[in-house]
Design a protein that fits this description.
The structure is a homodimer. By secondary structure, chain A is an alpha+beta fold. Helices cover 34% and strands 23% of the residues of chain A. Chain A has an 8-stranded antiparallel β-sheet, covered by helices on one side. The first copy, chain A, has a 5-stranded antiparallel β-sheet with strand order 7-10-16-17-18, covered by helices on one side. In chain A, α1 packs parallel to α9 and α7 crosses α8. The longest helix of chain A is centred in the middle third of the chain and has 22 residues. The interface between A and B is medium-sized, with 33 and 33 residues.
Chain lengths: 409, 409
């Protein structure tokens, strides 16, 4: 990929994604194999005036070897110094930038108990940090770059070099980073969301009714004063940022106790290197009471049964079938992209800013408002080209919101 | 380099260098550019039975960019979480393995104040950790692999690929890792040191007198019950290890207050990316009272004036002119190699085990025994092909220890 395009992509992450301000610390997490791009992001962060840039290096092979070969008790520990590292940067108001490139099959064949144990302990320990990012007290942003294994997964029939080139092309197109001025393109992207957000926020539907031929028939109750979010976010300090590059979704939090019916996934879920396929979940009064999957049902079980909150929904997101990512028709095996190809739900924690005043409520107040809490937050796709969504007001009036996968308002 | 040779080299670091035991945690520090070799060391550590292996990734470009572009106050901080990371592994009895490959000119042109400030604060904060490694309470080992910039510095007239191949060859030869069984070669290497160590330890010289035509005329007083160390070390728990790969030196601690005369360096000193050339230091009652350098005298000043102890010597080491590294005649611009080419001294902290019972003495007791303390420990070379060393006993009897650069006993 051309250096000038990469530089613009790195700058998109820093200036639009995290919107780094003068004097702010920046933490970049990335894979050692992507060191060249990580260094470009470091440079862009200093260009934006960062006080200091710390790199949190990852390595797929090291991670996989650890899961396969370390002693059992290692997965029960998440040392305090790791928590304190986040705290050190959180207290200094850092911006967190993530560069994702991992092999979707990274953890295939790893004992799921090890993954479950470490995920649980790390999420418990990092709850204060997650609370800051999820409530927009801290800005963060994630984008992706190809890796050979990821490219081979997406384009299994192409030789490595071609697969990587094609994945770069798809990523940059999806990220609206293939033009002359990606930062300006994202500014415009944000504005396009405003009208639909305003409409939905004014309507304050009581329920959304999702149906399609795949078998989804789901009533999602909405909490009072819910807020639709999309096309970027705004930090508590008023500074806009884009947590996800790309983003095509309009989303909010459902009422955790008012979801009823069955949802059938329309895409496999790639979770920590394992692919869960052909799965469906039935909810009763918000709680997942039944579920099945063709492959990796055990992994789905680990997600749903992580804690009490992981049995409930924390996000409902609308994506038009005509979104560029959906139109590409590529399964990326990466939530960052796949969630923007299709309407989706998330099991687990809700974003507090999806209800008015939510970012200043405590856990108890949020739960009382119907806003779910959990150590998990896992998206899965259920949108299809024939998806129909009807908004039902408190007085029973119905408004068609989506027909044949396209927005109808 | 052939994979099978690299694998043996990685195993040398793990099985001979750090001598990793079953159930021990291992911390590997290495550059992201050396990820393939780091992963080999990780595998070897698990082969040795490590409970877990943590990687402390470094990157030359990131480090240099930080020194050049971060805000001034960043260099005054060494966050507690970094200290606690060492503590976490120290308390679990970890083995520390280092893979060195840095560009000798990495920090050339960086404001020396920034380097000095960060070096001082980090060494102060990491004093408890250093005390554990320097007293052999923890095992550690360092070896090197080539990097393009390091190879270009050592072989400036060769094309990159040839320079790297030649540096690999030189490193493996110096490290006695170019044969069929490097681990067995190192076992033999250890045994070869025993006779000379026993001789010197029995003699218990009062002073060593170093002279050569370059201008060195130095009397180094020895502390009571000093212990010569070399050809590997033994941990407090009785497990042998090799802190340095390669190692060709016999060394001990001088009496910090009994060094008098002038020492003229015989090789430039590459310190944190800066080359100090043609320097000399004059000592009076142990303290450096005068010094000069042709290039980077300011850096030499920063070393000597870091704290009180950095004005005094903490190590005196004898290396024969016929050592393989000396015979190669290559200036490596890397202390790990260059210190094994020539007799040398170190400014700063002494190894406590260089005096009998030293590893159980506290700082005050060590100082009373003449064993130096400092945040620094910096080696510099003064051995030459015409070096003469005479050992002087308490009764004045003289023993010739080295003539024309070769051991005479």
């Amino acid at each position: 990929m051309e250096q000038s395009i990469l530089k613009k992509y790195a700058e998109l992450l820093v200036f639009a994604g995290g919107n780094v301000q003068k004097g702010q610390p920046v933490v970049i997490s990335g894979n050692v194999a992507d060191a060249d791009f990580v260094r470009m992001v470091q440079d862009a962060a200093y260009d934006a005036g960062a006080s200091d840039v710390s790199i949190d290096w990852q390595d797929d092979t090291v991670t996989r070897t650890t899961y396969l070969r370390a002693a059992d008790h290692i997965f029960e520990m998440y040392p305090d110094w790791r928590v304190d590292r986040f705290k050190f940067y959180d207290e200094r108001g850092a911006v967190y930038l993530h560069i994702s490139s991992s092999d979707p099959d990274l953890l295939a064949g790893v004992n799921p108990e090890r993954i479950k144990t470490l995920t649980k302990v790390s999420r418990q320990k990092l709850k204060p940090h997650s609370a800051l990012t999820m409530s927009n007290a801290l800005r963060w942003s994630v984008l992706a770059v190809p890796s050979p294994k990821w490219a081979a997964k997406v384009f299994p029939n192409l030789p490595q070099e071609q697969a990587i080139a094609k994945l770069w092309q798809a990523i940059l197109k999806a990220a609206r980073a293939d033009g002359e001025n990606p930062i300006a393109a994202w500014q415009k992207h944000r504005e396009n969301f405003t009208e639909r957000k305003n409409f939905l926020n004014a309507k304050q539907f009581d329920k959304l009714h999702f149906t399609n031929k795949l078998g989804t028939d789901l009533l999602v109750g909405m909490p009072k004063n819910h807020v639709w979010v999309g096309g970027g976010d705004v930090g508590k300090d008023g500074i806009p940022f884009f947590p996800n590059i790309p983003t095509e979704e309009l989303f909010t939090a459902p009422n955790r106790n008012a979801v009823n019916g069955k949802v059938v996934a329309s895409m496999p879920l790639s979770y920590q290197g394992n692919l869960i396929t052909d799965f469906a979940i039935t909810f009763k009064d918000g709680r997942a009471v039944e579920y099945s999957a063709k492959n990796n049902e055990e992994i789905l079980k680990n997600i749903i049964e992580m804690d009490d909150g992981s049995h409930y929904l924390g996000e409902v997101a609308l994506v038009a079938n005509s979104s560029p990512i959906s139109q590409m028709g590529i399964l990326f095996y990466n939530t960052l992209f796949d969630e923007n190809a299709s309407s989706h739900l998330a099991l687990g924690k809700a974003y507090p800013d999806c209800v008015q005043g939510g970012s200043t409520m405590n856990d108890e107040e949020l739960l009382k408002a119907g806003i779910n809490d959990s150590l998990m937050h896992v998206d899965f796709m259920f949108g299809t080209a024939d998806m129909q969504i009807v908004g039902i007001a408190t007085d029973g009036t119905e408004t068609l919101l989506m027909q044949n996968g396209e927005f109808a308002f």
